[in-house]
Amino acid sequence: MKVSPQDQRLIHNLEPSKFSKDGFLGTDKRRLEEIIDDDLRTLKKAGASKELLVQALKDAYQRAKEAFGAEIEIGKNVKAVFHESMGRIPSPFCKDGLFEKGEAVVTDTAHNISLIITSLGINLIEKHDFFQGRGCRFRIDPLDAVKVFQLLPESKKK
């Protein structure tokens, strides 16, 4: 299968670099399309919408950022803290722009789940359906995120 120059550039941008250190794929050996398809299928199977998930990620990120490093409660058994970082990181998808490097760490003690939310990570999900590869420090596992933000439909909560 022949890969277009644009796709070759994207694949290169997803690999470890001076900007992303470990890259966006982690230890995941699947093709980008497979990663995206699997994660979207997981969301659909859970009965959660990407739009609600993205909004929950944005809200948690913003609330943690506004707390200036203090740990805050964002839900039952769910806390968040923001870690400031200097600089910006480019999106691996060309023309998406630069994103601040700070991160919100959201921890759900009931499910023993932690998510690291970045402005770039939110953008990758919102615009490209890309939750990042397994083994990537910044991967937001869709099922974990659905649990943390309690986005399961009423019929699936039982």
Reconstruct the topology from this structure:
Elements: H1 5-14, H2 32-46, H3 50-66, E1 72-75, E2 78-83, E3 88-90, E4 98-100, E5 103-108, E6 113-118, H4 119-128, H5 142-148
Antiparallel strand pairs: 1-2, 2-5, 3-4, 5-6
The fraction of residues in strands falls at 15-25%
The radius of gyration is 16 Å
- Morphology call: globular
Query: In this structure, how is the largest beta sheet organized?
Result: 4 strands, antiparallel
Low-confidence stretches: none
- Structural class call reads alpha+beta
| Annotation, overall tally of beta strands | 6
SSE pattern, N- to C-terminal: HHHEEEEEEHH
Task: Describe the fold and architecture.
The structure is a single chain. By secondary structure, this protein is an alpha+beta fold. The protein has one domain (5-156). It is built from five helices and six strands. Strands 1-2-5-6 form a four-stranded antiparallel sheet. A two-stranded antiparallel sheet has the order 3-4. β1 and β2 form a beta hairpin. α3 (50-66) packs antiparallel against α4 (119-128). The protein is globular. The model has no long low-confidence stretch (mean pLDDT 93).
